[in-house]
Every structure is written in C-alpha cells, then in structure tokens.
Amino acid sequence: MGIATEELERRIRSCTLCRLHRRRKNAVPGEGPLSARVMLVGEAPGRNEDLRGVPFCGAAGRFLDELLKIAGLKREEVYITNVVKCRPPQNRPPRDDEIEICVKNYLRKQLEIIRPELIVVLGRTAAKALLNEEVTMAVDHGKERKVRFSGRGIRAFVTYHPAAALYGAATRLKLREDFSRLAEIIKAMKA
C-alpha cells in the first residue's frame, strides 16, 4: 500500500467532517487491490460493516460474493467501497451533504489512486453520486454509462444494491441477470 493510500485510509478512519462520525464504531474506507481494474461502489456501511470496519461483510456481502462469481470475478481482484464511509443512523439513506463530503474528500481520491477501468455502481444512492443524476433502477439497471473523474472517462455499470435482493426474489433475479451481463463486459475487458 502506498503512502498516499495509507494516509487516505487514516483520514477516513479518523474523519469528523460530517455528523455520521458521532455514532460510528468504524469508518469503512474500502478494500481490495490498488491495481484493481474493477471497482464496486455501494451506498454506505451497514451494521456489520460498522462493527468490523470491512465493506460488504454481512448478508448483502455474501450475496455480492455470489454475484461476483457469476461475473467471473473474485472478491480479491476487485476494489470494494461505498460512497459514504460511515454508517448512517438506523440505516437511513445518506443525506446530500454527507454524500458530498465523502465524494469530494475520499471517493474521488480513491478513484484517482486505483484508476479502475470499470465501476460497478450498486444502487440509486451510488448512481446519483457517481453519475451526478437521479436514476430509476427499474429502467437503468444493467446498463453501461460513462462517467468523468479527474478528466478521465470511466465505464460505469449500474445495478441494484445487493441488499435490495434480501427483500425480494424479483430483485435477486434482476441482479443475477445484470451480473451475467457484466460477465460479458469483463470478458471483453480481458480480451
């Protein structure tokens, strides 16, 4: 891990820039290789993530591992993070100011360090933060977009957040279909 990365993680773990730090147990910077070609970005840490300081380590994380397998990926080869690095109270959606602070101070820097070729955007909150527009998951899931960060175009693949699948079989099926489509994109990237 480079000095810039270690410093960024330290800043995330000790951050007090918004109200979310007051109730957190652990900020969750993200994890994965800094050379990852694929970056997954979710909304915010949940209860298990807050307790352990690791992204996607609960039930949604176990389902995400299944989805990664469908896409021909291993957790060890992707970088996984969230838009917001601290758990919002009662798992409420992050507020606009909380998102803005984390994107400006942390997520943009992570994107600059890792320089992924593809971002898998998990859910509406992540889509709004990364695409800078509202999306309707029922319409926009499974689609590829382009985003610009630091003057560089990056491919983005929009899908549901894995936690949404825990509450509905239809969303679970859509996620599996989306990750099957993602497998085609990944194969083309590796060719």
UniProtKB/TrEMBL annotation:
The Uracil-DNA glycosylase-like domain, residue ranges: 29-179
Keyword Glycosyltransferase part of the UniProt annotation: no
GO MF term (any one): 4 iron, 4 sulfur cluster binding
Domain of life of the source: Archaea
Signal sequence bounds: none
Swiss-Prot/TrEMBL catalytic activity: Hydrolyzes single-stranded DNA or mismatched double-stranded DNA and polynucleotides, releasing free uracil
One GO-annotated biological process of the protein: DNA repair
EC numbers for this chain: 3.2.2.27
Coiled-coil segments: none
Pfam families per record: UDG
Transmembrane segments: none
Keywords: 4Fe-4S, DNA damage, DNA repair, Hydrolase, Iron, Iron-sulfur, Metal-binding
Keyword Iron-sulfur found: yes
InterPro entries according to UniProt: UDG_Type-4/5 (IPR051536), Ura-DNA_glyco_family4 (IPR005273), Uracil-DNA_glycosylase-like (IPR005122), Uracil-DNA_glycosylase-like_sf (IPR036895)
Family designation: Belongs to the uracil-DNA glycosylase (UDG) superfamily. Type 4 (UDGa) family.
NCBIfam families for this protein: UDG_fam4
Name this polypeptide is given: Type-4 uracil-DNA glycosylase
